[in-house]
Amino acid sequence: MIIKSITINNFRQYKGNHVIEFSTDSEKNVTVILGVNTSGKTTIIQAFNWCLYNNTSFKSQEVLNLEVCKSMSVCSTQECFVEVILLHEQKEYFIRRTQSFYKNESKKIKASKPELNVQFKETTGGMQSIPKARGVEGEYDLHMKETINKILPESLSDYFFFDGERIADINNKGDVVDAVRGLMGLDVISTAMDRLDPSKVASVTSKLSKELDVGNDTKFNKLKVEVENAKEKLEGYKNRKVIIKEEIEFFERRKIELNELLLKNREVKANQTIKTNLERDINVVTGNIIKNENRLINDFSTKSMGYFALPLIKKALKTIDEAKQDGEGIPGMRASSIDHILNRGNCICGCDLTKNEGAKEKVLHEKSLLPPQHMGTILREYKKTYQRIEREAEGFDSVIKDDYVELRENKLLLEEKKEGLIDISKRIKNMIDVAKIEDDYQKNEIELRKKRDILLVVTGYISSLETEIVNNEKQIAGIAVVSEKNRKITKSIAYSKAVYQWFKQSYDKQEAEVKNRLLKSVNNIFEQMYHGTRKITINEKYQINLITMVGDEEMETEESKGLESVKNFSFIAGLVDMARIKARTTTGKENEDPNVIIGVDGELAITTEPYPLVMDAPFSNVDEIHINNIAKILPAVSEQVVLILMNKDWEFAKASLDDKVGCAYMIEKNNNSDVNSSIRRLL
Question: How far is Cα 298 from Cα 321, in angstroms, rounded to an integer?
Fold first, then answer.
């Protein structure tokens, strides 16, 4: 497929008729279209998609130029169209999509359904139209759509008409497998296999089996029903197995992502531990401060009076020691006790006080020594009290000092812990929630185990059903050969199974070769675009990943946006390069059908068409070094390259592409308008 031109009329920014002719020169196979932002560069990509597939990704679905729309008078009609002229399999196609717009009496604009028209030029020079399907509701353009999809399937279009700013998503599309198979022609064999697959209810083999006629053979009919039911179940389980595998792959990718997050954020967990310890320390220190304060208050309350009175007490004790009467009097004696002895008339020593006046005088003397009559006794009692207070007051200053120092140290420690808590809390606030990630990781592990268990069960069911089908079909085959008709049908079934196996073996081998060639081609291109130790791997879904060799170990690595763009450029360039090589190379001898070639060793070979690359903002995420490398490779791997880009990106790519440019254009805003641009040819 080579694009000759595109004509854009009243479509979005392009008021009036604008024609872009693309270079078809094999030596100068690059067309450059330059323009500033919002001038209409992306609109050209959208014009291709609208014309071929009736698709656009504009936020507003209106395609009519805004100035044309506003200038419409009441009850007037305007139209916009896009026409693409291209070459495919040595045939020239003219594809045009037109949409009419009518302004009614209420000044509202009504859009008609876009109308598609596909023509091709016959060898005689005349034009032949692709007929419209009739009588099929909603499929009026069916034949034309089929023709376009044979030229470039819609599922492949994003790989050849794409926006460089979204190139990072190109390898994450769900239809990568279909795209690769379609590009390499493997979808033809895949479709044929589906039609012949004995395990599928709607296949040719199953339909032939239903045509077997065995009359009233109850056992045969029962076996047929059992086989059909088993095949239906088998197909359901196989579909379920595919879904489960996809789910397992999702949970495995999620596991890797969560694990990477946990590894990256080990510091969060450590900080959480530090925070917990600080909070616990703050509670402990706060409790200690309360104890310190209570002890200080208690010690001050009980000992401060004696401490402050201590100088006076020492002076009083000195005065008492110097007194002469402090030794007289019986300690602890009371006046009432002596009165009791006198009244009784007998001393404690047994002397009769009524008869011995001298003894009685002695007892009365002792009474006179008791307070308040004698100062010596009073001083002795004071001395005991002062001595007790003196003992209690000794060391008071050290106790109060120790209490205060401990209290002050704990308060300083509390401030330090609080400042540490504030700091660590701020750091944690800026980090992810590790606890949640760990919880998600555990939940993911549970789901992954469940899916793997279900896969084992489903695989067991599939194996059991396949065995049941084989055994029942053997019994059916034994019963079915009873008639000539059945023998013919049985032979046809055997042929269809044999052809299916032939297709399958050829398909499996060619798909493996395609994957290996694609991997080799992508890595070869990647090495030319990127200089380093990384290389690319391709999984069974044709999704690519970057790996780095660390010693003898291969490790997946993180990618910057620029590196991811280079990786995906390599993938697309590899696909285009393989299609180009496949289209130019034939092995074996050609069959009557020019699209099918019988290859060596009787294997089925497929031919394909080369494809162009139409790229909007291809270098938006790539640095100048990689722009230069990519620019050198694109013309070599593609039959035709169309680059729609800004001047600043072209300045970096120009040195590598200038001698490859066959056509060049400039998109210019008319009067600096965002809704009206024109296209001027430069070369």
Answer: 33
Domain that holds residue 413: 269-429
Residues 288 and 415 in one domain: yes
Is there a contact between 559 and 617 (Cβ–Cβ < 8 Å)? no
Q: First-to-last CA distance in the chain?
A: 23
The total number of residues shown for the chain amounts to 683
Which one of 385, 411, 429 terminates a domain? Answer: 429
Domain annotation covers residue 109? yes
Q: Which of 161, 14, 25 is nearest to 618 (CA)?
A: 161
> How does pLDDT run across 18-64, given as a tens digit for each residue?
999 999 998 999 999 999 888 889 899 999 999 999 988 776 568 99
**Residue at 376 is within a domain:** yes
Query: What is the predicted pLDDT for the residue at 47?
Result: 94
Domain contains 579: no
- Judged by DSSP in three states, 58 sits in coil
Instruction: For residues 545 and 552, give the distance between their C-alpha atoms in angstroms, rounded to a whole number.
Output: 18
pLDDT at 76: 94
- Amino acid identity of residue 598, one-letter, is I
From 386, 405, 429, give the residue that closes a domain.
429
User: Does residue 461 sit within a domain?
Assistant: no
Provide the whole-model pTM.
Answer: 0.56
* Selection from 77, 52, 65, 76 nearest residue 1 by Cα: 52
For residue range 584-622, what is the model confidence (pLDDT) as tens digits?
554 333 344 444 434 444 454 555 567 888 988 887 777
**DSSP of 74-119, one letter per residue?**
TT-EEEEEEEEEEEETTEEEEEEEEEEEEE-TTS-EEEPPPEEEEE
Instruction: Give the count of domains, the chain.
Output: 2
Token pair 């009165």: residue = 339
Residue 279 and residue 412 in one domain: yes
